[in-house]
């Protein structure tokens, strides 16, 4: 299973059976592939090596650099095998990343005064966003 959402191919009269992709990702397949899991893992690992007595600044640097890395990573991950990058997947993964960061909690977001006592809101937003994103299907053959 690749990282790119399988959108199938548009069948033309000239299409050969070996050129056709066998499947199109369903709701669950799309839902999973819109989550930038590799970069979330990178963020958590980097955050884990920051000394406990450090200021909040390195946490914000790691969060920001990770967020910037999401579209770069997804660009390469969705453009393998000579396919053009799947821009909707890149966009939705980039939007999903900060939502995941807020739902995960900890520094740096716990440093925000309005976040205190409202972490549950981030979790609810994450749940609804993930389901709504799963409903978005890229155009067939893209």
Overall domain count: 1
Distance between the termini: 17 Å
**Low-confidence segments, ≥5 residues, pLDDT <50?**
none
Order of helices and strands: HHHHH
Percentage of residues in helical conformation: 40-55%
What Rg, in angstroms, do the CA atoms define?
Answer: 18 Å
Strand segment tally: 0
Fold and architecture overview:
The protein has helices at 27-34, 37-49, 57-78, 87-104, 119-135. The chain has 142 residues and is mainly α. It has one domain (24-135). The longest helix has 22 residues, at 57-78. The mean pLDDT is 88.
What structural keywords apply?
single chain, 142 residues, mainly alpha, 5 helices, 0% strand, globular
List the helices and strands and how they pair.
Elements lengths: L26 H8 L2 H13 L7 H22 L8 H18 L14 H17 L7
Helix pairs in contact: 1-5, 2-3, 3-4, 4-5
In short:
This protein is mainly α and 142 residues long. The chain contains 5 helices and no strands. The protein has helices at 27-34, 37-49, 57-78, 87-104, 119-135.
């Amino acid at each position: 299973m690749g990282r790119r959402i399988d959108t199938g191919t548009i069948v033309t009269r000239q299409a050969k059976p070996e050129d056709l992709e066998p499947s199109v990702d369903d709701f669950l397949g799309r839902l999973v592939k819109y989550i930038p899991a590799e970069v979330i893992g990178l963020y958590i690992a980097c955050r884990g090596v920051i000394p406990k007595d450090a200021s909040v600044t390195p946490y914000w640097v790691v969060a920001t650099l990770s967020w910037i890395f999401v579209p770069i990573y997804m660009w390469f991950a969705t453009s393998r095998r000579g396919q053009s990058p799947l821009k909707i997947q890149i966009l939705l993964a980039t939007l999903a990343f900060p939502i995941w960061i807020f739902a995960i909690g900890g520094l740096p977001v716990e440093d925000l005064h309005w976040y205190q006592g409202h972490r549950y809101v981030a979790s609810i937003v994450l749940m609804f966003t993930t389901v709504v994103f799963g409903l978005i299907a890229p155009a067939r053959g893209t």
